[in-house]
Amino acid sequence: MATPLLEVKDLRLAYPGQGFRARPVEILHGVSLTVGEGETLGLVGESGSGKTTIGRALLGLAEPSGGSVVFAGRDITCLPSKERRALARDIQVVFQDPYTSLNPSLTIGDILSEPLIVQGATAKDARGKVGELLDRVGLPADAAERLPREFSGGQRQRVAIARALAPEPRLIVCDEPVSALDLSTQARVLDLLIDIQRRTGVAYLFISHDLAVVRHISHRVAVLYRGDLVETGPARKITATPEHPYTRRLVLASPVADPVEQERRRAERRRLAAEAAPDVA
After folding, report:
1. Which listed residue, of 90, 154, 204, 242, carries a Cα 20 to 30 Å from 196's Cα?
2. How far apart are the first and last CA of the chain?
3. Does 121 share its domain with 82?
4. Whole-prediction pTM value?
């Protein structure tokens, strides 16, 4: 069996408690998952489940209290800042809000050139690659001279994706990348990510609260509930015939066009929630 590109083993992470002498609050309780080369793993769960915390730990933005993160055979759990910056060539991120993640005072060309220059490219070479990046995400070449505020939400997210692709990474952490967009724009951005993966072989850790979105883009799905991984498997199986009650509740939370079916799903979700109270085992 091929060695995974990313392997998270028994990851634990705690944040300081509030108040004097308050104990740390553990957010992740020993999570283990893998992402293969060129694969998309969908990490799904409700707000507060800890899914974004996993992404932060992978990016070095949160320090684990236990376990390990191994990337391409190398333990990157607690790298020094210099080594972490060098790792940015291989691990990039696309955040939820495409506007606040872009510097509003820089042109799109400067935004896309910046990560290339940081990685050692000359300003001339970086500028030369900007047009290629814009074309890859379906934006016109003249977009390089414009500011982020001149674009729609979907276009700004395309810019954010282009910035993540600039250093040609092996893994992109997508943290709720379409949740701030309308449904039609969501579909276009998801199709763009799928097309980019087919052409480049990049792997995604796709973080979302929406199981329908995760089903569209993922090869495998991991379901997180209150810091514990409760179910994982092929996307088609997890979304069609989930075994865990919490996963079934997530499936039933996805809206459908039929009002009768929607009411049935709501009733079934309430029943599962009542049976699971006060917790999901």
Report:
1. 242
2. 31
3. no
4. 0.89
